[in-house]
């Protein structure tokens, strides 16, 4: 019998159940984890007090992204905001972050939600929002550069989510 290795992904920090994976020893790569605090840029001063923490975990062929955001204004309570991974780092203008990152191996006709990383959040009464998602593909090193909080919920047909409010540079 071959020994096994267990690795726990830190998704519990995002309110998700702890996930434990078992595999033969040396067959399961250790997670590649990155944590970034921000934001790097705020484009709408209504959100000047928002603070972000983004965790990226790459294990095998999976990329998990977790967003924990605090400091939303009281009028944000109960609202949903689209959040996406973008290709470029944040810049002076929201559009500097470029388009949404898309899995380069996705079929051209695949639905947007299958080839992009979406982390829509709903803000609580305390101004706190948390979201996490895992995609069944790996974001290549340096292929994406930021996580953007938009003004509106994500449109599931075309991926749009309105103006760019808050951006955190994440060196994927």
TrEMBL record:
**Which superkingdom does the taxonomy of this entry point to?**
Bacteria
Q: Which residues form the signal peptide?
A: 1-27
InterPro entries found in the cross-reference section: SOD-like_Cu/Zn_dom_sf (IPR036423)
Q: What is this protein called?
A: Superoxide dismutase family protein
Q: Which family does it belong to?
A: Belongs to the Cu-Zn superoxide dismutase family.
**Transmembrane intervals:** none
Species per Swiss-Prot/TrEMBL record: Actinomadura meridiana
Which UniProt keywords are present, listed alphabetically?
A: Signal
């Amino acid at each position: 019998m071959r020994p096994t290795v267990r690795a726990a992904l830190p998704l519990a920090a995002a309110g998700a159940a702890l996930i434990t994976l078992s595999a033969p020893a040396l067959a399961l790569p250790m997670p590649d984890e990155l944590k970034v605090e921000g934001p790097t840029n705020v484009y709408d001063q209504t959100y000047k007090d928002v603070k972000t923490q983004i965790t990226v975990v790459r294990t095998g062929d999976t990329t998990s992204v977790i967003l924990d955001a605090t400091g939303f204004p009281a009028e944000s309570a109960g609202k949903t905001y689209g959040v996406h991974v973008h290709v470029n780092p944040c810049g002076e203008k929201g559009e500097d972050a470029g388009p949404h990152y898309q899995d380069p191996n996705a079929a051209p006709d695949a639905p947007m939600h299958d080839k992009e990383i979406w982390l829509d959040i709903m803000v609580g009464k305390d101004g706190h929002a948390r979201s996490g998602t895992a995609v069944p593909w790996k974001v290549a090193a340096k292929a994406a550069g930021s996580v953007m909080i938009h003004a509106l919920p994500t449109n599931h047909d075309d991926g749009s989510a309105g103006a760019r409010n808050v951006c955190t540079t994440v060196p994927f």
